[in-house]
TrEMBL record:
Name used for this protein in its record: DUF1223-domain-containing protein
Top-level taxon in the UniProt lineage: Eukaryota
Region (Disordered): 1-31
Cross-referenced Pfam families: DUF1223
InterPro entries: DUF1223 (IPR010634), Thioredoxin-like_sf (IPR036249)
Length: 261
């Protein structure tokens, strides 16, 4: 595992650690307009931060792909992979890397009071962190009481073929909190992608990737006592790209609602 101290663009896009690190429900929308509330089934959001230039990361990819192949993932989990850029100086520029993902990881590090960002880092529901290359960490995080439980904020999505997407967030079931809720959309490629690495720590390896996030878009805030709020998302032109709506308690805060676009 590698550790390092390192703002998401507002509209876009088993090695021992040197420091101790303190899918998704199928709410898919068909071409014809429909509505599916994310609260109808439990959902657990699993976010992996990694780099193609980190030689501790390939096992984390394998763990994620293995998890995605389980039947339970088809009903319970949303898996997202973010590629950070701060290891690019080691000789290989990550083909999926974005400084926006560095910033998202820093938000989590700050909110969890961790000593530093590191790769591969896995975060579950925005509230628990572990080493992504360790199956034991992943199993521990997914076995925690916060995973697999119903998220308190209901998110429903309505979309149609060629139309804008309507996202309705109902936070009335959440206890009053002075901090606004942040609504973000992570746009990701659900297909497996194999990348041949020709330089750096993983030189000569072909690394598989799954659910690679392409961009993260902040779509709005829900202030205290607003209850229900509607957001309109422009239709994406990227063929094959899927979206995941995440409702969080501010930057790097707990995930309290989620749904797939």
């Amino acid at each position: 595992m590698k550790a390092i101290f390192r703002r998401i663009h507002p509209t876009d896009t088993d090695s021992a650690p040197p420091t101790t690190p303190p899918a998704y429900t199928p709410n898919s929308i068909s071409a014809s307009s429909s509505t599916v509330p994310s609260s109808s089934l439990p959902i657990t959001v699993v976010e992996l931060f990694q780099s193609q230039g980190c030689n501790s990361c390939p096992p984390a990819n394998d763990n994620l792909i293995s998890l995605a192949s389980s039947s339970q993932v088809q009903t319970d989990y949303l898996l997202l992979t973010y590629h950070v850029t701060y290891w690019d100086y080691l000789g290989w520029t990550d083909t999926f890397g974005s400084s926006a993902f560095d910033a998202r990881q820093r938000d989590y590090v700050r909110r969890m009071s961790l000593r530093s960002a590191f790769t591969p880092q896995v975060i579950v529901n925005g509230r628990a962190s572990g080493v992504g290359s360790r199956k034991s960490d992943l199993e521990r995080l997914l076995g925690d009481g916060s995973a697999g439980s119903q998220l308190p904020v209901s998110v429903s999505v309505v979309t149609g073929d060629g139309e804008d997407t309507i996202v309705t967030v109902n936070a009335s079931g959440l206890s009053s909190d002075a901090e606004p809720l942040e609504v973000v959309v992570a746009w990701f490629d659900p297909e497996r992608q194999d990348v041949q690495i020709t330089r750096g720590e993983n030189k000569g390896e072909t690394l598989p990737h799954l659910n690679v996030v392409k961009s993260v878009e902040r779509v709005g805030l829900i202030e205290e006592k607003e209850g229900e709020k509607v957001f309109v998302l422009d239709r994406r032109q990227d063929l094959g790209v899927r979206g995941a709506v995440l409702v969080q308690k501010g930057h790097g805060g707990w995930v309290v609602g989620a749904a797939r676009i």
